[in-house]
Amino acid sequence: MSEFANVLRSWRDRVRPEEVGLPAGAGRRTSGLRREELAALAGVSVDYVVRLEQGRATNPSPQMLGALATALRLTTDERDHLFRVAGAAAPSRQVVPRHVTPGVQRIVDRLGDVPLAVFTAAHDIVLWNDLWAALSGDPTRYTGIERNLVWRHFMHGHDGVAWDDTHQEDFSSDLAADLRAAVGRYPADRDLAELVARLRRGSPEFERRWDTGRIAEHRASRKTVETPVGPIEIDCDVLSVPAGDLRIVVYTAVPGTEDAAKLDLLRVTGLQELTPR
After folding, report:
1. HEC string for the chain
2. Residue 274: pLDDT above 50?
3. Alpha-carbon distance 79 to 68, whole Å?
4. What integer is the mean pLDDT of 139-152?
């Protein structure tokens, strides 16, 4: 058995179903993930997982390896090993990291009572919980550049979200300044360079802020979000994960307020529509 097939099987066996939100159930022949469960988490066919573990599928793409690494909750070092034994170059340190570490995964799993999402240094959303989708819209509706927060903010506006004038200006300026800092850290990232180029061509508001040369990180803001249960005023705080250069964005409402009560109601209703079509 190849090293790739060996570690893939070993790492699948060590992931407990409850760690990834699956029921453990009775009568399981393995304490780890079944092949079909790994396939579902990674977005591939069961047959492909079988062929990978038997060494009959070769040269998996970097995208596939990244999906497997996330599904298996690998550390950064384990992910790099998976890439290398698959015959692929480990992700460069000069491109924006997209790997969600097991610790960040557990934070998202545990904090289901607040809207929470994980973004890369380029502000691509890579992970979120159900309450985030209920409050901000389901990210699975979008693909590619449309999943980028900065792109959507400057190119599509912010329907359903209201800031006061100070927070609106600060939020927009911080996004541009944070993106500039990412360009400095990841000079070889072509997708990031293309994002900035398209924003500068397409958004005068982004171009104006980019031309200031400001460097900063977006940390916090307050805004009002229109939701199926009515407008909710929330505080937005951004927690940095230095090792993977990720941002965990957390929304909270002041306890005991009408906004907190609406957030509780939204937690119950989730993505369901409250009014008939």
Report:
1. CCHHHHHHHHHHHHCCHHHHCCCCCCCCCCCCCCHHHHHHHHCCCHHHHHHHHCCCCCCCCHHHHHHHHHHCCCCHHHHHHHHHHCCCCCCCCCCCCCCCCHHHHHHHHHCCCCCEEEECCCCEEEEECHHHHHHHCCHHHCCHHHHEHHHHHHHHCCCCEECCHHHHHHHHHHHHHHHHHHHHHCCCCHHHHHHHHHHHHHCHHHHHHHCCCCCCCCCEEEEEECCCCCCEEEEEEEEEECCCCEEEEEEECCCCCHHHHHHHHHHHHCCCCCCCC
2. no
3. 9
4. 92
Share of the chain above pLDDT 90, in %: 48
Tell me how many degrees the CA angle 261-158-233 measures, rounded to the nearest 5.
Answer: 20
Report in angstroms the alpha-carbon separations of 260 from 17, 111, 257, 272: 32, 16, 5, 19
The pLDDT tens digits of the residues spanning 244-253 come to 899 999 999 9
Q: Measured in whole angstroms, how far is the alpha carbon of residue 254 from the centre of its chain?
A: 25
> 60: Cβ–Cβ under 8 A, 6 or more apart, which residues?
52, 68, 86, 88
Q: What is the pLDDT of residues 50-83, one digit of tens each?
A: 999 888 877 889 989 999 999 999 988 899 999 9
Contact present, 130 and 271 (Cβ < 8 Å): yes
